[in-house]
Each structure stands twice: as structure tokens, then as C-alpha cells.
Amino acid sequence: MLRRLTPLIIQSRTIKHTVDIKWVRPEYIPAYKAExxxxxxxxxxxxxxxxxxAYALSEEIKDAPEAVKKIFSVGHLGKKxxxxxxxxxxxxxxxRHQYDESTAETRIARLTGHIRCLQxxxxxxxxxxxxxxxxxELIDKRKKLLKFLRQYDYKKFEWLLEKLNIEYKAHPDTYxxxxxxxxxxxxxxxxxxxIKNKKLDDYRTLLESQQGPFLTEKLEALKFIRSEQIDLxxxxxxxxxxxxKVEEQLKEWTIKDEIKQQAKKKKRNILLETE
Amino acid sequence: MARNIADxxxxxxxxxxxxxxxxxxxxxIRVKRLELDENLLMYFRKDEFYYCSDPxxxxxTGDIVLIEALPQKxxxxxxxxxxxxxxxxxxxxxPVTGKKVAKEKYREDxxxxxxxxxxxxxxxxxxxxxxxxxxxxxxxxxxKPTYTKFHVxxxxxxxxx
Lengths: 275, 161
Description:
The complex is a heterodimer. Chain A is an all-alpha fold. Chain A has helices at 2-9, 34-37, 66-71, 74-77, 79-94, 104-124, 129-152, 154-164, 180-231, 240-274; one strand spanning 168-169.
């Protein structure tokens, strides 16, 4: 009730807030880019003079003249042949046996090769809509396969990430659209948390600094009470164990305090050096 | 009566799955349950989340674990503790034969198949493989929940998408 009425009574729209939180909208990165898809490296170093995959098998080309080799090289045959070489390069990294084509790791490797080729295409020609669509689909498919592999064979999943140099990030709970209001809300929350934690830390250090003097006072008082009780032959309420306990606490505190002081000195020195 | 029994059993032991969380020294466990909708007379899935104290970090994201209620609440949030990891995620052992399994096949059989075809050096070796977690925070970002990137901070958080 009160919450509903307050904005009616108090005008908040015209009030200038003292907390200035600057929100910077994160720059839009297309999904095909390497930083979004999780590819940590570009195309493998395959020279343009490398022979096309099918032609490299032939016996005659081995002692053929340079001009013939040039005709059957990837640079001359075109991008399609080059991409086949890229895919086979990635597959050969993780292949189980010679005829392995359809296991999860080879499928992921092939997709990775294809994705990196298409990413290269998109770099050169950002308006290629067909390539954009295809690479998006392939990235999604690879992520799905990685998700399944993670579920049934975690060790292999990790090994594959290392071999192919890919990053895997789990899906977030919700894919909500970025909005100014929500971002500002989150930032304000973080700001409030920071203030709260800082105040709590300050209070903690204050209390801890008071612990030492209090413990020494307590120790003296306990010793005095015990000696008095012995002198006056009264029932002894303070045992030696109590005194020992306090002594141990004091020891612990002094060790902790020394460490803190040293850290403070180091910080001061670093600050002085930077100035 | 029945509700009382259910409540008491809930305090004894629960089976759930570990989900990513930012909390330290605690695991977030999801317990799946079915709830009857009396109007439709149909069961619908209902998740319950429990925060369990786990100082030794026994369970990792995705593990199926047994949890039990603490005699006293540790904090306002942490009410349970992890008792045992039943099935580690992605490293399943067949309970009948005691062999390791990948999907619907035994790992032994997969190895045998690739050996028959002629195993290559590039193939994955289960014996040399380190235990799970060596890529955590490097290339595998699954131990904490990911979120949509909402601000440009000085430090880049890998969990922001």
C-alpha cells in the first residue's frame, strides 16, 4: 500500500540522484565471430602450393614439373579444395582409426574446420548472407554435439577442447534481451553490495584491532583475581586453564596482527613507488 | 499423515543433481519431483533447490549426489550437506558389470573396435587422460552460471556471453 502511494506523494522523477553510475552498452558482436563462437585460433597454416587432396594420392604428380604441380595446387584449384584440406587437417588430429568418419569427435572436428573456413569467408565478405546463415547453424550444431559429449564422456570432452582449441560455455538460464533499465538495476545492486561489504570490512578490522588490548587486560585481571583468591583463601573460580586459553588467544592475535601490518607496509611502499 | 512422512523422509536423504553456482564452500543441488495437478489429474515437474555445505568440493557440476539435512542450519541458505557422489557426471560405471560406459556402449568395446580397424596415435587414450577438471576455467566454462553481458567492465568475465 505504502509502496504504491509513495510515488504519488513524493515526486521522484525530477529528483537528481547523487549516485552516478555510468552504463556502457557492450558492443554488438556478430555470432559468427571467433570470440562469440569460441574458436581460439584461425585457419591452420596450409600453404597455397599444397596439392589438392585427391591429386596428392597420384604417383605421377610426385615427379611432375613445377608448372603441372602449380595447376593442381590448392591456390589454383580454388577455395573449395583448400577447405577440404582444412577439414581433413582437423579430423586427422582426433581420428580414432583410418575409417573413422562418424564418431562424435570426428564430427565436431569436421564442423570446426568448416566453421573456420566460413569465418574466413565472412571476414572477407561480411555481406554474404548464405555463409552467415550456414556458419550460425554449424556453430549451434557443434555446441549441441559438445553438450552431448560432455554428458556421456567428460574426459574426452576436455581432451577435445584442448586438441581443437575451442572454448565451451554453457547456455545461460535465460536469453533475455539486453535493456538499459535492467543493466542499471544490476549495476546499482553491485554498487550497494560494494558499500555494504566495505563497511562490514571496516567494522571487522576495527573490532579486531581492539581484540589485542582487551585480551592483555583480561589476562592481567584474571591473574590478579587468582592471586587474590589464593591469598585470601577464598574458593578459586579462575583455573590455570582459563589463563592459558587467554594466553593462546593473545598469541594467535599477535601473529595475525603482524601479518596484517606487513601487508599494510607493502601496500604503502607500492603506492609510494608508483607516485 | 502422508505429508508428515514425506516431510520426514525429505529430512533424511535426497537425490539430486549439482547445478552451477557462484557460492563458495557450497553446492547447489536440484531435486526433481513430480507434483499432481488435481484439476487436470496430471503430474508436472517441480524443481526444488537446496544449498549444501561442501567444504572439500567433492561434487562438481552435473554430478548426481545424495544429500542429507544438517541437524542445524549452517547459514540462512545452507541447510543440507553432501553425503555421497553417486554418479560422477560423464564418467558412468555400469552398476551390473562394473565396467565404464560411454553412452550405450562399453568403453572396452569401443577400444576393441578401433584396435580392429587399426588404432591411430591421434585417438583418445582413456588411461593417459587426467581426471576431470583440468580444463575448468581455461576452456571449459561450466562450473559457474553464464549470463548475458550487460556492461563493459575493466576485467572481462568469461562467464558473460
